Fold this sequence. Notes:
Elements: H1 49-61, H2 69-89, H3 96-118, H4 126-153
Amino acid sequence: MAKTGKSQDKPGMLGSLFWQSSDRYFQLPKTYAEAESPARKYENPFGRLVDRMSRMWVRLSSGDRHPTAGFYVIVGVVLTVITAIEVWAFTWPFGKAVINPILLALSAVKFVMVIGFFMHLRFEHPLFTRVFAAGLILAIAISLSLLALFFKLNG
């Protein structure tokens, strides 16, 4: 691999499987330079809150490096709140037709957060995300097919 003076050069085809870059799947701002234009900064219903939250995101996720411990604490608190909402949902006076989709959506959000942050998929090469997503889609398709077969056979 020839050096071009950059801090990281992309390796060849085989080496790219094990190469970690700063490319990421979730396109969230990593540095203040990636934030949108200051002219449009406060043109939203939330005013300065969006700017403060994006600055906090950059500070907690540490730019190109892996996030700080504080970031993981915040992710853990969000996951705890979602879990509390899921437990609380069982006391709601609605039928299963209303509660089950809500629980599935909350579980999907937790799944994406755990995979993206605690398993560091957000910080890895996009190929790993694609391989993981392909396996996940296949597993969901097989599960739904087996459920459909079960209900068809058992009426």
